[in-house]
Amino acid sequence: QVQLVESGGGLVQAGGSLRLSCAASGRTFSSYAMGWFRQAPGAQREFVAGIRWSGGTTIYAYPVKGRFTISRDNAKNTVYLQMNSLKSEDTAVYYCASSSTWPRFEIEYWGQGTQVTVSS
């Protein structure tokens, strides 16, 4: 079992920044990569960014490329999502997830989610 706990969400004005954290515990060695996903009201959950635990290779969804940065701290088993130049369309519940594959994500575990609200 792997437990994922997100933090760092909140309310921010358009153009502002937030940093999300995802702390992993449990059998984390079974995870190959980590990703951030988001789900806006009435919409499907969508991929935002991903990172390999080994080597730190990253991938991003087109809408966030150049604005969001995913990073990881292997010693702390923590993944971060730095979100800059936030837009109202970034408003969503953000989830972190662990994957057993890369670059195609096969989700093993989800976090509980953290709300990000961007006011215009």
Structure description:
- By secondary structure, the protein is an all-beta fold.
- Helices cover 0% and strands 55% of the residues.
- It is built from no helices and 11 strands.
- The chain has strands spanning 2-7, 10-13, 18-26, 33-39, 46-52, 58-60, 68-73, 78-83, 92-99, 107-110, 114-119.
- Strands 2, 4, 5, 6, 9, 10 and 11 form a 7-stranded mixed β-sheet that branches.
- β4 and β5 (46-52) form a beta hairpin.
- It is globular and about 40 Å long.
- It starts with a strand and ends with a strand.
Brief rundown of the structure:
This protein is mostly beta strands and 120 residues long. The chain has no helices and eleven strands.
SSE diagram, text form:
Elements: E1 2-7, E2 10-13, E3 18-26, E4 33-39, E5 46-52, E6 58-60, E7 68-73, E8 78-83, E9 92-99, E10 107-110, E11 114-119
Parallel strand pairs: 2-11
Antiparallel strand pairs: 1-3, 3-8, 4-5, 4-9, 5-6, 7-8, 9-10, 9-11
